[in-house]
Amino acid sequence: MYRMFKRQLRSLKKRPASANMTTNSTPKSSNSSHQSHDSKRDQDGGGDMLDKNLYSRQIYALGESAMMHLRKSAVLISGLGGVGVEIAKNLVLGGVRHVTIHDTKETSWYDLSSQYYLDENDIGRNRAQSCLCRLSELNDSVQVSASTEQLSEEMISHFDLVILTDADIKQQDIVNVWTRNKGRYLLVADARGLFSYIALDAGKDFQIDDKNGEQCHEFLIDYIDKDTGDVTTLDNVPHNLEDGDYVSFAELKGMTELNNCPPLRVTVTKPDVFNVGNALKTFTNHIGGGRGKQVKVPVKVNYVDLQSGREDPSLVIWDYGKIEYGICLHYLWQALYTFEEKHKRTPLPRNENDFSLFFEELIDAEEVEYPEYLVRNFCFQAKGNLVTTCSVVGGIASQEAMKLITHHMTPLKQFMYIDHLDALPAPGTGYDAEYLTEEDCGPRDSRYDGQVAVFGWNYQEEIMRQKWFIVGAGAIGCELLKNFSMMGVACDPSRLGVIKITDMDQIEISNLNRQFLFRRHDVGKKKSDCAARAARCFNPDLNIIALSERVSSETEQIFDDYFFGELNGVANALDNIDARRYVDRRCVYYRLPLLESGTQGTKGNTQVIYPYLTESYGSSSDPPETEIPMCTLKNFPHQIHHTIQWARDRFEGLFTNPVEIANSFLSDQRGFHDRLKTVAIGQQVEMLTEVTKALIDDRPNNAEDCIKWARLLFEEYYHNTIAQLLFTFPADQITSQGVKFWSGAKRCPHVLNFDCSKPEHFQFAYSASLLHAEKYGIEPVIDKKEVMKVLHTITLPVFKPATGVKIAVTEAEAKDAAENVGDDADQVLDGLLIKLAKMPIASFKPLKQIDFEKDDDTNHHMEFVTAASNLRAENYDIEPADTMKTKQIAGRIIPALATTTATVAGLISVELYKMIDIDGKLPTVPISRFRNGFINLALPFFGMSEPVGAPEKAYNDVKFTLWDRLDVGGNMTLRGFIKWIEDKSRMKISMLSSGVSLIYAYFMPAAKIEARLNMSLREVVELVTKKPIPSHTRGLVFEATMDGEFDSVEIPYIRYALPLV
User: Fold this and answer.
1) Which residues, other chains included, contact 947 with Cβ-Cβ below 8 Å and sequence gap of 6+?
2) Are the C-beta atoms of 875 and 580 separated by less than 8 Å?
3) Distance between the two ends of the chain, CA-based, in angstroms?
């Protein structure tokens, strides 16, 4: 069935594109709509003000310049089937200024399998008009209009970009002539069953301002060799450049001609060395130091029209494991359009006569061999309509549309063909697609007709009985809910299936740009509740339960054995690694499939975790992020990242951590002192110092005290500390090695003198005073003029640097300083305890703990952090950052795009098709059937790979993986349990643990071992953990280490089923 075959087929006659298409004139309503686009754009002179809160995550991915291009643009989307609505949804969410949806087709039952903004009431109605209202609701800053007239050259002239879906080759070529005549861009996308494609024409000399969308790399320079042109980075730090990149230079000592010169093209020599050519030979010698920065230089690319491109196609590879499919699908799609034009219909599912007719239309292309399995399924799925396929191709096409509008990132060149053929039910399952018949896949006037055309009715009914748990209702969670509900997961009329979704978060404004199930009126509500309600609108038969608990070890009484025991699988939609790892461990324990996915800007990944076949999420991990050295943060910053992290630390050190400690002291002094005794004396001093500062030294009596405190804080941070640093290490200091102390990564700072007239100075004092007042529950001075008056009245003594102050220069010195508490630690501790004992504790009210919240513009958190960071940057002559950049770094915000999210959710939803078998069983299939995905829409790059298999281990020639375990139950003592393990493994046990608790070890005292051996397993676990086993716990997990012949031997973990009590 997988044999390759090739036939000498008659060539298709090439039909020249015509510039004349029979159309009616554009109606007044549509024409006026297009004119209103232009007039509105003229009025705005470049678009409305950018809502940075709404688009913040997208701005971090694309940049403000690209975002402003989107806010000025007008896009026409023709064809509102599953692909068209996905593109429209993503572009409306993305903030394209004007989106016109165009369609002349009426809604059919087949549309309802993928077009989530249509329902049964829309059957027979125009698709564009039917979904206009729902698309308009997505973003109130985007004008969405609908057109039902025939396309014309005059009509497309009103748009920057024309997108065609559901369009045959003849229509594509005609519109392509028009777009070229009018200097517009054209994007084409279509999907049938498990197949889809994208093609585009960006015209001649299309300029790409930024080919990859990555942040420009910056680095410190150690040495520049003017004779060779080699540039070496400081301390062998990688420069992260590529051949052909451009760099500029600044702050060089010697070779000053290179400072701020035009960017130079580089050739990479080593990870820490690059070459800039012969341009430096006439320059002065480089003495030392300096900074380099990558510069994005625009490039121009030529595209041919689609008709010419089809003759000699330039293909983007989708799956490197099936490279040969690309050219085959190129001609299969052309054959399909030819069939439909000739027969005025689409080939019927599993119809052999239609397959014969389709086969005759294949182009006789040289060196193209068509796999029979591919050709047959392509033909059989021509009427197929899957939301998963549309989500993938629609997400990618949306990003391509943004590239054409913004000139940001590299558009694909020029055709890309996508298939998910491995999602068909495989041999070894009860639904092997090989045996599907025309009747199995025939329509029944059902919303699932489009999916049934691919998989058959029996398979569809099994999907509807599935039980899945979605963890997270954010961006990916919303997309998964859309896909699952449209697929029919948990939509069985008898309610046998169910989707459970949980998310503890509430909806924020910044979510609306990509979490498309939410609207502005949902802000402040629970994500899971709103997402579940919206998903029911896609499919009213959906049986969904919304929860709002975090999935963690603290909630195992909710997410217990029964909860996981009834599931078919779990889909993660999480944004943090710890939560992912926890869910992963639960899925391994319950032997459930896990669909894992994540995004970061234009990058995305999907991972299939499948019982007994694959590794788990926790089997591998990314390298940990490099932390900023303590001494760099404290004394020697040289990047804006350093000053932002310092400012964020100051925020928590002023308004969060001390309050938590002080309130702990106020609420339970005895308990506080008991806990104090359990830590080292240095930490005791630190904790008590925080308490005394919060409750005594820094405590204000009124709002004016808060302003004075803020002014003193400025003096401490930006004048006195810097003055002391320069006193200890003068600007001209020479080290014992004979080099300047202030060189390399150490930037020599200078003090700042407070000046109310400087915005950053006042912003710091103003925001700090407000936060200080909030911390103590004091009504602050809001009027900035009044604050300024108070600031002008404050006089401070002249600071005198102290002698003998030790300042850590290296990380080792910083660590030693932190651990060295000094000889007078006991005396200091006693003084603090006496000071606190004299306080009238009863009269003290708890302080307000202020937790950093980046997305609230009214709370002054970002105002403080931005000012604090930029003032420190000014101390060290580092280029400052605006609030947006500061927010991203301080808030550790991950850039996000609706386009990437849709693509990733589509890919991982495709994998769910592969997990269906009769009666809810997991199919026994080869690992090669599954696909992990790694994508970068910016380049674009797509890597599909087989998952990594579960690593094997062995004991006594018994092989096992992480999915295996030993199960035992009944009333057992520890002695009996150990004997059972030793009998099972034929080895002696050396250690036994449960979680972090050591239950048994050969080195324990004999009396302790003997006492425990006679106890029941429940009793010994409760003894060791010092707490009762929770009532919801049905089993205990143990790990045993056995004595091998030469070394310790690992065996599978043991699950002990607790007897009922």
Assistant:
1) 607, 608, 609, 610, 613, 614, 615, 927, 930, 931, 932
2) no
3) 58
One-character DSSP codes across 155-178: HHTT-SEEEEES--HHHHHHHHHH
SS3 of residue 628 by DSSP: coil
**Rounded to whole angstroms, how far apart are CA atoms 41 and 296?**
29
Mean pLDDT of the chain: 93
What CATH number is associated with residue 1006? 3.10.290.60
Same domain, 246 and 164: no
Strand order in the sheet with 415-419: 143-147, 98-102, 74-78, 161-165, 185-192, 195-201, 415-419, 315-316
CA angle 624, 629, 635 (to 5 degrees): 155
pLDDT of residue 24: 33
Residues 56 and 95 placed together within one structural domain of the fold = yes
Residue type, 385: N
Closest CA to 860 of 703, 655, 657: 655
Phi and psi dihedrals of 987, rounded to 5? -145, 160
Please report, rounded to a whole number, the percentage of residues in the chain having pLDDT higher than 90. 87
Bond before 414 cis per omega within 30 degrees = yes
Q: How high is the pLDDT of residue 1020?
A: 97
Domain count, the chain: 5
Residues 561, 1035 contacting (CB under 8 angstroms): yes
pLDDT band of 822, cuts 50, 70, 90: low
Q: Region 522-548: what's the mean pLDDT?
A: 98
8 Å CB contact between 720 and 752: no
- 831-844 burial, b at 16+ Cβ within 10 Å, e below that, comes to ebeeebeeeeeeee
Other Cβ atoms less than 10 A from the Cβ of 812: the count is: 10
Catalytic annotation, residues? 631
Q: Is 581 helix (H, G, I), strand (E, B) or coil?
A: helix
